[in-house]
Amino acid sequence: MAGAPPTKxxxxxxxxxxxxxxxxxxxxxxxGGLTLAAALGQRGVQVDVAEAVGSDAxxxxxxxxxxxxxxxLDEIGxxxxxxxxxxxxxELVLWNPLGEQVAAIPPPDGxxxxxxxxxxxxxxxxxxxxxxxxxxxxxxxxxxxxxxxxEDADGVEVELATWTGKRTPPIRDAGAGSNRYDLVVGFDxxxxxxxxxxxxDKYAPxxxxxxxxxxxxxxxxxxxxIVVAFAAGxxxxxxxTSQDDMYFGLVTPEPGKxxxxxxxxxxxxxxxxxxxxxxxxELRDSITPDHTIVYxxxxxxTVREPWFRGRIAIAGDAAHxxxxxxxxxxxxxxxxxxTLAAALDQHDGLPDALDAWYRRRRDRALFVADASLxxxxxxxxxxxxxxxxELLRQVVPNAQARLFTEAY
Length: 408
Fold this sequence. Notes:
This protein has 408 residues and is α+β, with helices and mostly antiparallel strands. The protein contains eleven helices and 21 strands. The longest helix has 31 residues, at 350-380. It is globular, with a radius of gyration of 21 Å.
């Protein structure tokens, strides 16, 4: 692909005999887990995926796919499918609180092909990745989670359990046997049980003091880029996710991490967007009780030591999660996945493969997490550290230039 990074994983449709692993278990069927399942399956690896949440779970609203993640998705053959169903665009547009454009920021040039961005609905994105993993031969089970793991020099013995919801403990499958794997990878989110298995209670997500609100609406003809506007400490983000749809997002201070009742979401959304008018006010006023508003407290976590122990590893939000201020959080999970598959392909031994993968990913992923948090703190007027000030010397366009010009 023209403009692709210089180091690529195994081409789609061509199997390889992996030296490091033959059978892998992935906990988590989100963006990163499904990407890894597809990448490994395309190389002839036997892949099982365990997803605790059922297939009918809410997968979120939407997100942006910057050029670097589109290149990574090309490695598993789904770039064009994402572009076809999503909304490609170039510029980031700034509006004032009256809904009037005041600036347009062009994307930086880099090593990746155009378009520079593609926004997409989260359920559609998940479906594309699920189909790629299925086609690659991955076996995906929903409503299950890891019950026990026992590792020895030759593998990991894993027993699964049924999981029925956030407020109920897993239920051990009566009479269930165990399966043996060469590698277990946790793409199981910010509250990762795999991370807890590796590191105990050493790492826990920290609340940033802010939260994200998002609601899907019909896309007006004038919305052809991501739009950002600020007023009274509230950040509005409008994102076209297809030719038909968009989402209206907010980032708001939420001191004390309140647990708002879902029945209050609409009134709270309207209250927080009261300073906005014009097109922004019209979009706000179009939201009705029939719309689903998603409210997510924003958290931050970084694991600053190797993301693996023996034959068990973590990636994506389990290893590094942050506010969405660089539109790169999900992209980092995809990059984690394709580079892990490449490392397993390129190294004869598992320890060497995991070490090479971690060293390749560490600085890039932690830069995104740290810079995203610094941007949020700056927007909120929070106290900044010397490290924050250094990161903020690279404002968003320059920070993205770094991500667009470096190969993942």
